[in-house]
Design a protein that fits this description.
By secondary structure, the protein is largely without helices or strands. The protein is 12% helix and 11% strand.
Length: 232
């Protein structure tokens, strides 16, 4: 898959068989109105500019993301798959299938438990004023080789926003999030405007599936791809 393809997550278990190391990007082929087809984008009060061919796709609904994934023969990853790709290491994850294995360690960030996000690892905090190309910031890669899993654009997942097993209701969840259980879809990874203190790989958010007025893109998961891993 190319850099023009990308992402999401869910509540079931298992690692993705194959992950694309980038967000969904603009179509530079001219088909369907890509860069060669004359598409432009406005950004705040600036004049509309041509789409960048390797920028992450944003402002797409969950339905649009799901449709694109199906069109290329893939699907949105589940929230659990997204977390495996962002927070675990391949060798440790493979060993975790053994009943005698130690609890699986989950990284704080895609690149490890430290250092905190820096400008060469993740596009967050809003200081760039927008997205960077999907191939940028290689220092922020996860152990699985997935790039851009923190910042730049939120990533739709396949999963409905539901409580984890053992969840106990308390304030402010009772008023703030619980009413939307089962209705919204989980998004992961944060975006270029996300504040650094909350920009962690374990952070989850949710949006209505029809929403497109948010900085949300997606990542494509491919089942049965060459060199893939996992149990799906």
């Amino acid at each position: 898959m190319s850099d023009d393809e990308a992402a999401g997550a869910g509540h079931n278990t298992g690692a993705p068989r194959h992950w694309v190391a980038g967000h969904a990007g603009a179509d530079s082929s001219g088909e369907g109105g890509g860069v060669a087809g004359g598409w432009c984008e406005p950004l705040f009060d600036r004049a509309p500019a041509p789409l960048r061919p390797h920028a992450p796709v944003m402002h797409v609904t969950w339905y649009e993301a799901e449709a694109y994934c199906a069109w290329v023969g893939g699907r949105l990853p589940t929230e659990a798959e997204w977390e495996v790709a962002a927070r675990t290491e391949p060798v440790e994850y493979a060993a975790s299938a053994s009943p005698a294995s130690a609890p699986l360690h989950r990284r704080e960030y895609p690149w490890g438990d430290s250092p905190p996000p820096g400008p060469d690892m993740a596009n967050i905090d809003g200081f760039r004023g927008g997205t960077v190309d999907v191939g940028a910031l290689a220092r922020g890669d996860s152990a699985w080789g997935c790039r851009g899993m923190l910042g730049n654009a939120w990533e739709w997942t396949q999963s409905a926003f539901l409580p984890f097993p053992g969840f106990t209701m308390d304030f402010p969840y009772r008023e703030n999030s619980a009413p939307w259980f089962g209705y919204r879809k989980v998004v992961k990874g944060g975006c270029w405007a996300t504040s650094a203190p909350v920009a962690r790989a374990g952070y989850r958010h949710s949006f209505w599936p029809e929403m497109n007025a948010v900085y949300t893109g997606f990542r494509v998961a491919m089942d049965g791809a060459p060199g893939g891993v996992g149990r799906l």
